[in-house]
Inverse folding.
């Protein structure tokens, strides 16, 4: 794969922790060029070839974690580390400075928040084959009401639903 031109949210050099697949299972740090788009975070080698990527479509802001300082020196990496967790893998990167780390965290959180909102919008769209429009407003009259069995919790945003097994 080679590098393609896209609309990057952020790009720059980061250290990437290896998978540790060698003979001694050592996780080396390699300098890679990263490109963050609304859909993925990809990293390239010095020749500009894509070496790997992770999908950002299902990441949330909880998927982005600033790692605590390590007591041991990191060979090739720095103390300003970020973990990005996806359903398929966890990527650990290190930044050159604290300011750089904060800029990457801001960009990653922006993309995660964007994708959560995009997913929510897509889930709210209901398409009916008999309708000419792609969206239909929710009609509560079409569904049975069980207001008496819904208990609100301390948080106004949360509702505890009755168990289907009860």
């Amino acid at each position: 794969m080679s590098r393609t031109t896209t609309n990057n949210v952020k790009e720059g050099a980061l250290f990437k922790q290896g998978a540790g697949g060698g003979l001694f299972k050592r996780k080396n740090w390699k300098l890679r060029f990263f490109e963050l788009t609304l859909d993925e975070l990809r990293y390239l080698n010095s020749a500009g070839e894509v070496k790997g990527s992770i999908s950002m479509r299902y990441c949330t802001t909880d998927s982005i974690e600033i790692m605590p300082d390590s007591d041991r020196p990191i060979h090739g990496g720095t103390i300003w580390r970020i973990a990005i967790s996806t359903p398929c893998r966890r990527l650990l990167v290190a930044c050159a400075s604290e300011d750089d780390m904060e800029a990457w965290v801001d960009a990653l959180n922006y993309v995660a928040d964007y994708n959560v909102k995009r997913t929510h919008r897509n889930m709210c769209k209901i398409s009916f084959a008999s309708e000419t429009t792609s969206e239909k407003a929710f009609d509560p009259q079409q569904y049975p009401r069980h207001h008496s069995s819904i208990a609100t919790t301390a948080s106004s945003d949360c509702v505890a639903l009755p168990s289907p097994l009860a």
Summary: The chain has a mean pLDDT of 76.
